[in-house]
C-alpha cells in the first residue's frame, strides 16, 4: 500500500501534489479553525482534514484519509455537518473528494505524524520563555474595543476589564510577541492607550485597571470605524507585516450601524472579531436596528470571527479559546488587501511615434498607479519592461522593495524609440518578469501601455499570460486600435480596456486602474 503523508490541520487540497494521495490527519484540530468550501466535492482551497470531518470520513481523533483531485466547478454549497459549517464559493479552479484511507498506511505514518501535527497552544513543553520577548508564535497587533456605554454599566464594565486583563496575560505580550492597545466605545470613541505604549504584560494590566468608565450610547460603529482608521498607524506602533486585529466587546447591541465600519476595517486590512455578551433576548430584538449586526462587522461571516459569552460572570473558561483564535495568523483573512498583496508589471511602449515628452507622461501615469500600493518585501511589488521590436527589463519584482526606490527607478527609465512588437513583449514579460514570482502569494497583474498597432499577433501571447494567472489591463493612447486592446485584456474586457486620444488623458485613468486591480483582487478572494 502507499505510505501516508502526515499533514497538519491547515493543509489544503491545493497543497497536495498527486492526483490521489493518502494522508494522515492529526487529532484534536480546533473545529472552528477549519475553512471548508462545498459538500462532498470540496474546493481545493478547503482544509483536507476539515473536509474529512465534515463529510464524516474521520472524527476529530484524526486518521487516514484518501484524497482524490477533481476538476473545478461552480457553486460549492454551504452545509453544516459534524460540527463544521462549510461555506459557499461561486467558482474555483480545482476540487477534491475524501474517502477513508487504509489502515496499514496509517500505521506507517503514525510514527511521523507526531512531529508534524501542531502542538496545541495549551500544554506546550516548558521552554524557558524569554519574558521580555513574549510569545513569538503569536503575531498580532490588537486593539481591544471595550464597551463603555450605559448599556454595560459600571459594575459589568469592571468585569469586562478583568476579562480583557486575563486575555492580555494569556496572549504573552512582549517585544517580539503580541502588542495591544485599548479603545473605549461610548458616545465618542477614546483611544486609552496605543500599541507602542507598553510591551510588558505588567504595564498593560496596570493600564487596564486604571481605565475609567465613560458612559453614553454604545456607538460601536463609530468607534470601530475610528479605530480602523486611526489606531494602526506606524507612528502609533503598528508593525509591518503583522496582522492588525480589533476585538470588539459588545454588551447587548450597538446603538448605531456597524455595516459601514465593517467595510472600512476590511479596506484597511484589519481583522474584526466581535465578542458579544448577553445578546439581545427575543423581547429586546425590537429595539435592535439591525439584527445581523455581528455578520456585517466581522472580517468574514464564517463563524471564526464571532464569539459569544452568556454573561460577564465566570468568563475564565472563555479566555483560552479566544486567545487561540487571536494567535492563528493563517486565519486572518482580512490582513491581505489589494494594496499589500499584488504584483503589478508595467509593459511600456517605447516606439518612436510616442516622443520624449509624451513618454514622460506615460512614466508619470506608471508612478501614480504604483504610488497607491504598499510596496515592501512582504507587500506588493512592481516591475517594468520597455519594448520596441526589442524588450528591456527596466527592473524586476525583487529589485526594489521600497516605494521610494521603485518610484525613483520609474523616473530614471530612458526612452528607447523604435518599432512596436507588443505580442513578443507580452511573452517576454510573462516568462522573465512573472516567471520567477508565479508561485508567490501575491496576485499578478500586467498593465500594457501602447500608442499604436502591433506588428505581431497580440492575442496568443495575451491568452498565454492570462493562462499563467496574470490579469491583463490594456491602456491605449492615440492610434492604438481598439481590437488589439480588447484582444489583450482580461475578461470582462470592457472593464480591463482603457483608451484615451491624448497622452494628457492618462492621468484621469489612474483611479480607475487602481479600482480595477482592487476589484479583481477581491473577486479572486471570494
TrEMBL record:
Lineage: Eukaryota, Metazoa, Chordata, Craniata, Vertebrata
Pfam families listed in its UniProt record: LCCL, VWA
Principal localisation: secreted
Gene source species: Calcarius ornatus
A GO term from the CC aspect: extracellular region
Protein name: Cochlin
LCCL domain span: 3-96
SUPFAM superfamilies (UniProt xref): LCCL domain, vWA-like
Lineage: superkingdom: Eukaryota
Protein purpose: Plays a role in the control of cell shape and motility in the trabecular meshwork.
Entry keyword set: Disulfide bond, Glycoprotein, Repeat, Secreted, Signal
Domain called VWFA: residue spans: 141-326, 343-513
Keyword Disulfide bond applies: yes
Keyword Acyltransferase: no
Protein localization: Secreted
UniProt-listed SMART domains: LCCL, VWA
Gene Ontology biological process terms from the UniProt entry: sensory perception of sound
